[in-house]
Amino acid sequence: MTTFSEIKLRLMRLLDLDPKEESRIILEAWVSQLEKGKIEHQQQQQQQQKKQQPQQQQQQQQQQQQQQQQQPQQQLLDKELAGKLVDEAKKDLAKKKASHRKRVRANT
């Protein structure tokens, strides 16, 4: 792993800077700006994540509420459908009994 001073020397060579005090001051200022930018970027990412978490939680809560509201409605629809099916079955059974009675009477 390279040390901070090694990185500085490499940067100075890349930038054709003399290892003079002026160049070091410029380089240190540049490095500190980069570090500040990195820290600011990390803080922005953390803030965005913090903002997104409550939004996601709110969306999940809304979905749960919608599901809870839909359940009683679905239960009512299921009960209505079951009631209609029972009514139809009763009517069919009554028709079959009536036709069976007619056959029995016709045979006797």
Automatic annotation (TrEMBL):
Residues 93-108 have a biased composition (Basic residues). Residues 38-108 are annotated as: Disordered. Residues 77-92 have a biased composition (Basic and acidic residues). It comes from Circinella minor. Residues 42-75 have a biased composition (Low complexity). It comes from the Eukaryota. This is Uncharacterized protein.
